Amino acid sequence: MRLLAVGINHKTAPVDIRERVAFAPDRLPEALHDLQTRSGVNEAAILSTCNRTELVCCAKGGNDDNIVEWLGNYHHLRSEDVAPYVYLYPEQDAVRHMLRVASGLDSLILGEPQILGQMKTAYATAMQAGTVGTTLGRLFQHTFSVAKQVRTDTAIGSSPVSVAFAAVSLAKQIFGELTGYTVLLIGAGETIELAARHLHENGIGRMIIANRTLEKAHVLASEFNGYAIELGEIPSHLAEADIVISSTASPLPILGKGAVERAIKARKHRPMLMVDIAVPRDIEPEAGDLRDVYLYTVDDLQEIIQEGLKSRQEAAKQAEEIIDVQVAHFMGWLKSLEAVSTIRAYREQAERLRDDELEKARRLLASGASAEKVLQQLARTLTNKLLHAPSAQMKQAGFQGRFDLLEAARELFDLKKSQ
Q1: Mind listing the pLDDT tens digit of every residue in the chain (419 residues)?
Q2: Strand pairing of 272-276 and 293-297?
Q3: Which of 41, 86, 333, 367 is least enclosed by beta carbons within 10 angstroms?
Q4: For residue 70, which of 117, 107, 111, 37 has the smallest C-alpha distance?
């Protein structure tokens, strides 16, 4: 078995490809079981966000192509449509990739903290699905620990930079002070909550929060003095919004061009900023063609995001150094697993010899033999039997000139060289 990380992200694939291989949260358990069944994977977890879809697997060697093929097939895509955008990291590279992702070093925004929570969710989902075993379990726990160390020991998260923050920064660039403007937030997840927090801190005039579950929208709206509505009510309130920020897990667009066009007419063509940070997209791309509509996707936020990166560059270097050390630690643990079967076999052999000699000693004692003589014979016989095979092998190694094996034996048995 070997570790493998397979996926696509914002660096390797455009948004239209990423949204086609994204996994809906409610489909993940089924997908995990299908991945295990069809691709020869022993352990698996799936991380699917707006910027990446990744399969973290423990699989038999030679199954790399099967996993990539499965990713395409599951989403009804041809392998050649997916393969050009896929990266594949084996073993040590997979571990390094996991640690970098969790620490925010591979994110669209350097050091953003949301990815760690998303990884924890992916791990919990895989655990519930029963697709995580000893190796991936240890890898995820190690990953979470290292990400926490990076946050604690470096300034990687000192600046409040995120996709949500970038969206709010864009709104400030367009409208200036946000007081007196109305925002419509679609969704109630972490990204929308973060956007609501940034908007509230920047004095947004009015906040409307729309979500499939009205109760969740109410919880978020109450925290920021907002107004909660269901998704079906959006057309009735869309014209009120100067700013629309959307981030849901919907597999289909929530806002079509027609609804946006009607809202713009009702607004008498006052400008509307729309930021779609969902994958798959929540707003039909054609809405961006409308006059007075300024539609941005996650890919369009790159320039704004870059402005907040400079202060994190030195912290990122420190984080990489921490990760180098921690990759070595994990790989050391992983390699130690290879010795477990040998240790177990050696221990079982020694225990069989012990049990055989112990039984002989009991029979001698039962026949009236001296306890002192029985103990001496037990110790002598057991010592001889335990040493017989290693001694014979070392003699043979000496005869064959295999001095490397003799040196290994000295290290293995912690023997000092004779003077």
Answers
A1: 789 999 999 999 999 999 999 999 999 999 999 999 888 899 999 999 989 999 999 988 777 888 999 999 999 998 888 999 999 999 999 999 999 999 999 988 788 888 999 999 999 999 999 999 999 999 999 999 999 999 999 988 766 567 888 899 889 989 999 999 999 999 998 889 989 999 998 999 999 999 999 999 999 999 999 999 999 999 999 999 999 999 998 999 999 999 999 999 999 999 999 999 998 999 999 999 999 999 999 888 877 777 767 778 888 999 999 999 999 999 999 888 777 778 888 888 889 989 998 999 899 999 988 999 989 999 999 999 888 888 888 888 888 888 888 888 888 888 876 54
A2: parallel
A3: 367
A4: 37
pTM of the model: 0.65
Q: E strand or H helix at 76, and its extent?
A: none
Residue type, 187: G
Three-state DSSP at 44 gives: strand
- Tell me the C-alpha to C-alpha distance, in Å, between residue 367 and each of 16, 149, 378: 85, 65, 15
List the 52-59 sheet strands across, edge first.
41-48, 52-59, 2-9, 87-90
Separation between Cα atoms, residue 170 and residue 163, nearest integer Å? 10
Handedness of CA 87, 91, 92, 98 (dihedral sign): positive
Give the distance from CA 370 to its chain's centroid. 66
Residues recognised as catalytic:
50
Asked if residue 220 lies in contact with residue 188, where contact means CB atoms within 8 angstroms, the answer is yes
Integer-rounded Cα Rg, in Å, for the chain is 30
Between CA 179 and CA 197 the distance in angstroms is 15
Q: What is the C-alpha to C-alpha distance for residues 403 and 407, in angstroms, rounded to an integer? A: 6
* CB of 1 closer than 8 Å to CB of 42: yes
